[in-house]
Amino acid sequence: MRVLGVDPGLTRCGVGVVEGVAGRTLTMLGVGVVRTPADADLSHRLLAVEQGIEQWMDEHRPEFVAVERVFSQHNVRTVMGTAQASAVAMLCAARRGIPVALHTPSEVKAAVTGTGRADKAQVGAMVTRLLRLAAPPRPADAADALALAICHIWRAPAHSRLQQAVARQAVHATKGRTA
């Protein structure tokens, strides 16, 4: 499974590609940050994020895209920019028919470190260890993007089994009503 993780942001949008399956050694295929100037017009910044993500998709051909689910912060302006960058990433994936999964920051932290309250340094350290890197990816947005991809790889099998169970239950419920 090849996953593009996206840590959305307008100034720095972290991107990272990880390949592997749950229970096996994972491989980092690429990591970086799509940057936009803070003083640029919003529409131009969103276009730059879109172009950057498209380049990553062209180069790495992910099978899935994992995006950090935007959560409410105290700074509404920051949340809006993050949400807009998140939407751009989802749009790029949808345009190519690539499934998108949203993961909350606490889900990602718990998957990678074992606790949903881990700090940036702990996430970076575990990403470094799990991917056998020489040093933590910088900036933290890049490490977070890799953590998103790792989280998705590890959670996808369980999520798929859950969806299958729900579908089976729905079929049984429908059969019970028609009998």
Report on this structure:
The protein has helices at residues 42-60, 76-96, 105-113, 120-130, 140-178; strands at residues 2-7, 12-19, 27-35, 64-68, 100-103. It is α/β, with parallel strands linked by helices and 179 residues long. It has a five-stranded mixed sheet. The radius of gyration is 17 Å and the shape is globular. Helix content is 55%, strand content 18%. The protein has five helices and five strands. The model has no long low-confidence stretch (mean pLDDT 92). The N and C termini lie far apart (41 Å).
Keywords:
5-stranded mixed β-sheet; 55% helix; 179 residues; 5 helices
Give a topology summary.
Layout lengths: L1 E6 L4 E8 L7 E9 L6 H19 L3 E5 L7 H21 L3 E4 L1 H9 L6 H11 L9 H39 L1
Parallel strand pairs: 1-4, 4-5
Antiparallel strand pairs: 1-2, 2-3
Brief synopsis:
The protein is α/β, with parallel strands linked by helices and 179 residues long. Helix content is 55%, strand content 18%. Helix 3 crosses helix 5.
Shape: globular
Q: DSSP strand (E) fraction?
A: 15-25%
* Major beta-sheet overview: 5 strands, mixed
Distance between the termini: 41 Å
Question: What is the topology, as strand order, of the major beta sheet?
Answer: 3-2-1-4-5
Number of helices: 5
Helix content range: 55-70%
Provide the residue-averaged pLDDT: 92
* Rg for CA atoms: 17 Å
Q: Structural class of the helices, strands and pairings?
A: alpha/beta
Quaternary structure of the protein: single chain
